[in-house]
């Protein structure tokens, strides 16, 4: 009885130790950069949900600070896609990556100003601008799901 249980427990333990191993170093879904990006995404979504409520202003500003922190951390990381590039392509790719994140951090500063000033229209405009920056940067860098949706042929005009 005891031996069977112990053998079973050993198998389960071994399997549970082996399972998470291959995910990390490969980048993509579990890369450190991916985690920062997900956190930026989450903060912006929550900001978008609550910015119009003056009672939540302090909490909204905290979310902006969180988003800024994750964008600054992202600046210190390397996009997994650049790992296997030739040196010249890699330098160009990393330059775009850093330039886009600089632009993002600047817009986060403007978002903070708009929320502090309590101007809902300017806040909304900044949220939209950050969303657009995300789309254009991801497209430029060839990442983030939507990358394949762009650039295809336009849909046929109605009636053709
Ligand atoms: C403007 C500067 C930005 C740059 C340079 C940038 C760069 C990147 C890169 C290189 C990846 C791939 C990460 C990986 O393969 O592990 C990525 C993924 C992602 N980014 Fe960004 N990003 C930017 C802005 C944003 C913003 C503003 C958001 C959200 C509001 C965002 C949300 C995401 C998400 C959710 C992913 C994961 C998507 C997926 O892999 O399907 N990013 N980004």
Judged by helices, strands and strand pairing, the structural class is mainly alpha
Which percent bin holds the helix content? 55-70%
First and last CA, distance: 74 Å
The CATH architecture comes to: Up-down Bundle
* Major pleated sheet: none
Classified in CATH, the superfamily is Cytochrome c/b562
What is the CATH third-level topology name? Answer: Four Helix Bundle (Hemerythrin (Met), subunit A)
Q: Average pLDDT, to the nearest integer?
A: 86
Determine the strand fraction and express it as a percent band: under 5%
Number of domains: 1
Q: Please report the number of helical segments.
A: 5
CATH C-level name: Mainly Alpha
Give the strand tally.
Answer: 0
Global morphology = flat
Which ligands appear in the coordinates? protoporphyrin IX containing FE
Determine Rg (CA atoms, Å).
22 Å
Low-pLDDT parts are 21-26, 147-153
Q: Write the element-wise H/E pattern from the N-terminal end onward.
A: HHHHH
List keywords for this structure.
single chain, 160 residues, mainly alpha, Four Helix Bundle (Hemerythrin (Met), subunit A), flat, binds protoporphyrin IX containing FE
Structure report:
- This protein has 160 residues and is an all-alpha fold.
- It has one domain: Four Helix Bundle (Hemerythrin (Met), subunit A), CATH 1.20.120.10.
- Helix content is 68%, strand content 0%.
- It is built from five helices and no strands.
- The chain has helices at residues 2-18, 32-50, 57-75, 87-117, 120-141.
- The longest helix has 31 residues, at 87-117.
- The chain is flat.
- Bound molecules: protoporphyrin IX containing FE (HEM).
- Residues 27-28, 31, 33-34, 37-38, 40-41, 44, 79-81, 97, 100-101, 104, 130, 133-134, 137-138, 141, 143-145 line the site of protoporphyrin IX containing FE.
């Amino acid at each position: 009885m005891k031996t069977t249980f112990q053998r079973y427990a050993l198998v389960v333990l071994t399997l549970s130790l082996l399972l998470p191993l291959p995910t990390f170093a490969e980048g993509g879904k579990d890369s450190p950069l991916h985690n920062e990006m997900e956190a930026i995404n989450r903060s912006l979504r929550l900001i978008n949900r609550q910015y119009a409520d003056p009672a939540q202003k302090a909490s909204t500003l905290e979310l902006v600070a969180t988003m800024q922190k994750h964008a600054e951390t992202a600046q210190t990381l390397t996009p997994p896609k650049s790992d296997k590039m030739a040196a010249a392509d890699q330098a160009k790719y990393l330059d775009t990556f850093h330039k886009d994140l600089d632009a993002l951090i600047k817009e986060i500063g403007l978002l903070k100003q708009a929320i502090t000033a309590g101007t809902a229209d300017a806040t909304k405009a900044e949220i939209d601008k950050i969303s657009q920056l995300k789309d254009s940067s991801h497209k430029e860098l060839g990442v983030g799901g939507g990358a394949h949706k762009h650039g295809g042929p336009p849909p046929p005009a109605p009636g053709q």
